[in-house]
Amino acid sequence: MMERKSNAFFGCLLMGVLLIGILFLHSRYRIWTESDALQQRREMVRILGLSDLCLFTEARYTRNPSLADIHTPFQDHPMSFEHFPSGSLVEPPPHWLQPSVN
Amino acid sequence: MAPTIGELKMPAIIEKHRHLIDFALSSLIRRKGKTFSLIIVFAWVVFLLASVMFFSRAIQQEASSVLQGSPEMIVQRLVAGRQSLIPVSYAKDIAEIRGVQHVAARLWGYYYDPLSGANVTLMVNDDLKERVGEVLVGDAVSFRTAVQGQKQRARKNDILPFKTAAGDVLMLKVAGVFSAASQLVASDLILLSEQDFRSIFPIEPGMATDLVLQVRNAKELATIASKILQMHPDTRPILKDEILRTYDAIFGWRSGIVFVLLTGAVFAFIILAWDKATGLGADERREIGILKAIGWETADVLLLKSWEGVIVSLTAFLLGLALAYVHIFMTSSAFFEPVLKGWAVLYPEFRLMPFIDAYQIAVLFFWTVVPYTIASIVPSWRSATVDPDTVMRGT
């Protein structure tokens, strides 16, 4: 008897769903095995008093966006264009976008 | 005449759908070139969308978890709109505010190494007070060393040259390297003694980069911040909540990086769905005409086309999703690296923790599989409601 195409499709679908399940298991496994590393990073931040993730090192206002002042992207002169690629990707931190007395 | 769905009982309905799936698969295999290319393009779009979603979520989760240890409040001084050095005497004033437990002055800054082109963060650490001439460095720090003269990653006992404010070269010995696990927070960090820091940067005694505060009750942070502002109007207090919210904003969907990547992927998907929704090929129209002529109901034709859409979109979805997971969490976001790297010489390896959840998958599913399936039904419905003879003649 010839195998029905729908059986093959359901078989593939089942494999796909199992694959997603494996991704979830892998995700949980890595979070579990690397929880020490996460804890180590958290401790390092606490001990050294760090305030930002080290995602971009090219400009100071993207290296430490939460500590940047609102004028840093225009540091060369008031009409200067954004200089660093990462400055185009990172928007100002929300506390700079709120009205403030300072 | 074949019974309609309403006239069938449950097992018969399942059998009918299985026949429809058989037919839909045969039809897709008949047009295998088009089907295959459609699945590849669709999977690429899902891959991009899922990669952006996984990446931004993982960074947000990492930031919210790791930065819980950040100072409760950082006080900067602003002069002419820019951060300036703050007098250490401010710390004494602030320490007298009710509710403030501890105030510490910090010394840190950015150093550009012209030989390697790298920017590093120099930070004074009290543990190195008695170890003048020694530094602790992040795992990604690379310099042109004094000994080899070539750019390479700093290792223990290496000698790193720093240009001082006086124009001399200060040689500092690497006493230790932070573990690779710390890269996401400290890849460019160099800890050194206050004496060495002041040799490199001409910062007057009595001045610091900023102040960090510990308070007795976190609920009083806003009150303390407003008191600091009254006391020293040239300061800017930054609260821990604001630091944590920064990363939600940077990697929120409206932010630059996510928006650029999402826009490309969403437009590619819209073109794909629009192409599908605006019309069928001549073969597909003739196929519908023949099916109608041999007695298929309009509802059955629509079901058939829905199954075709589901088969294509579901296959592409599963493929794109799995590839995106591998991309972000197993290859350190290799496709995004050039975008994120910019002009930076020092760059952390993005080995992100795979924070994924069912909500993310569900959102992606409803934004890709559902619209595509609906888009594939619309032109079929138009063809299926026209007279079969007209459809087959192609008039």
What amount of the residues of chain B lies in strands? 15-25%
Specify the overall morphology of chain B.
elongated
Largest interface: A-B, 62 and 89 residues
User: So what's the overall shape of chain A?
Assistant: elongated
Strand order of the largest sheet of chain B: 5-6-12-7-11-10
Q: How would you briefly describe this protein structure?
A:
The complex is a heterodimer of chains A (102) and B (395). By secondary structure, chain A is an all-alpha fold.
Structure description:
The complex is a heterodimer of chains A (102) and B (395). Chain A has 102 residues and is mainly α. Chain A has 5 helices and no strands. Chain A has helices at residues 5-33, 35-48, 60-63, 85-89, 94-97. Chain B folds into 2 domains: 15-66 and 247-392, no CATH class; 73-238, no CATH class. By secondary structure, chain B is an alpha+beta fold. Chain B is built from 13 helices and 15 strands. In chain B, the strands form 4 sheets. Chain B has a 6-stranded mixed beta sheet. In chain B, strands 1, 2, 4, 14 and 15 form a 5-stranded antiparallel beta sheet that branches. In chain B, strands 3-13 form a two-stranded antiparallel sheet. The mean pLDDT of chain B is 84. The longest helix of chain B is centred in the N-terminal third of the chain and has 35 residues, at 32-66. Helices cover 51% and strands 18% of the residues of chain B. At the A-B interface, helix 1, helix 2 and helix 4 of A face helix 1, helix 2, strand 1, strand 6 and helix 4 of B.
List the helices and strands and how they pair.
The complex is a heterodimer of chains A (102) and B (395).
Chain A: H1 5-33, H2 35-48, H3 60-63, H4 85-89, H5 94-97
Chain B: H1 10-30, H2 32-66, E1 73-79, E2 82-84, E3 86-87, H3 89-95, E4 100-106, E5 108-113, E6 118-124, E7 134-137, E8 142-144, E9 151-153, E10 159-163, E11 169-177, H4 183-186, E12 189-192, H5 194-200, E13 207-208, E14 210-215, H6 221-231, E15 235-239, H7 240-250, H8 256-277, H9 282-293, H10 298-330, H11 337-341, H12 358-384, H13 388-393
